[in-house]
């Protein structure tokens, strides 16, 4: 133990991509808490052992029967298992007064931790980060925004720990989590779906996008850079920004054979009309015409 530091043991149930990365970052951070990793409990012992090797600390646990006490319990199982896992943790009798139990789900609040509230403090911390490659996440987690809600005692300590690993913590209302998470999914998962749809339409246009350089890459990267380096509205270019209604009509015609693409195009186009109105390049008559074309798609009239 380093002199002057408060030693805390953290055990993790569900040390997959997010869980094992956070455990390793916590074990290596330097704040007033010295974190030792306790038990790692996954569905299979082999997977728990693999996580222990990645973290460089801890012991693979054997289910919920022989749990050792810990000050902090991270439940990083899939969202659907969080409630059942926390129930089993509570029933195991290992929790002591003042322990902290938290999960990392974006959409669920700490109310989903069925841990007895008069024993442990509960919280949820959602890092707005993709842990797709844990090794990479060890290097690029820093500056990740982390949404925290839950008991004040748990939130205070977890804010210190997440700040120590480079997180930028902010408070979130428990009852707004589903909406908040839907918003983050738009910027991450749905962005991937949108790029995939764009690629499928290019292929339908006879353009080979597999292999070699992806012709969408610099366009997409420029748009993202422009969005985050301006007020966002200024990043919009293209036919709706200019008010080119005939181009929009041609796009809609070309997409008729691709109903999924057409629906997405029309919905996002409506949002672009709102942004374009704020930019002021297109006049209101042009934007009304474009809106009429897009609305007709929604009403299935074109
Ligand atoms: N991945 C991300 O980018 C990300 C980002 C932000 C937040 N989160 C949140 O982090 C949590 C974990 O997500 P993940 O992507 O890291 O999941 P994951 O990679 O699929 O890992 C889930 C882990 O949970 C274990 N597990 C499943 N059911 C269990 C049970 N009943 N008891 C004990 N362990 C169990 C699995 O064990 P086995 O290996 O033995 O199957 C696995 O190690 C979720 O709440 C998610 O919303 C994830």
Sheet having the most strands: 8 strands, mixed
Order of helices and strands: EHEHEEHEEHEHEHHHHHHH
Number of strands: 8
Sheet-strand content, in percent, reads: 5-15%
In CATH, the homologous superfamily of the largest domain goes by the name: NAD(P)-binding Rossmann-like Domain
**Number of separate helices:** 12
Spatial strand sequence of the major β-sheet: 3-2-1-4-5-6-7-8
Structural class: alpha/beta
Helix fraction bin? 40-55%
Class of the largest domain, according to the CATH hierarchy? Answer: Alpha Beta
Q: What's the architecture of the largest domain, going by CATH?
A: 3-Layer(aba) Sandwich
Question: How is this fold's topology laid out?
Answer:
Elements: E1 6-13, H1 17-28, E2 33-41, H2 45-55, E3 59-60, E4 72-75, H3 79-91, E5 100-103, E6 121-127, H4 134-140, E7 145-150, H5 152-164, E8 168-171, H6 177-187, H7 189-204, H8 217-229, H9 239-242, H10 245-255, H11 259-279, H12 284-298
Parallel strand pairs: 1-2, 1-4, 2-3, 4-5, 5-6, 7-8
Antiparallel strand pairs: 6-7
The chain binds NADP nicotinamide-adenine-dinucleotide phosphate.
